[in-house]
Amino acid sequence: SCSWRKLNEKEELNRSLQLKCEDLHLEAQRQLEQNHHLKEEALKQYCFQIQETKLKHRKIRMKVENRLHQLMEQHKNLFTIFTPQRLPAEIRSAEYTTEQLLKAEQQKLEQLTNLLDGLSLTQNEEMHMDTFVKAP
């Protein structure tokens, strides 16, 4: 009976330890699943951030490429206008325009001089008339 009692106690202890072991195993399994879930969430977040960064870089690259394309077009346009073959004609055109502007300026100066001379003459005539009218 003493040995039966010890056997029962050992069996009870064995069951208790098995339950404790199962509880620990379940807890470890739960923590592993939780860790796995957290890792998956972190991975999703990192993937999202990577995609967001790639999109930003793509937008920046598109802007730079568009600007580069515009500059290349401007360069082509300038190159077609200012080719070495056209340079002498462009210089002649600029010189002709300068001559025309100088002639126009000279005409304006002559007109201004004539107006000033006319004004001066008119003032002199008025002064003579004033003195003639005021004379006793």
Automatic annotation (TrEMBL):
Coiled coil: 7-41
Keywords: Coiled coil, Meiosis
GO biological process: synaptonemal complex assembly
One Pfam family, short name: SYCE1
One Gene Ontology cellular component: synaptonemal complex
Family: Belongs to the SYCE family.
Name of the molecule in the record: LOW QUALITY PROTEIN: synaptonemal complex central element protein 1
Source species: Carassius auratus
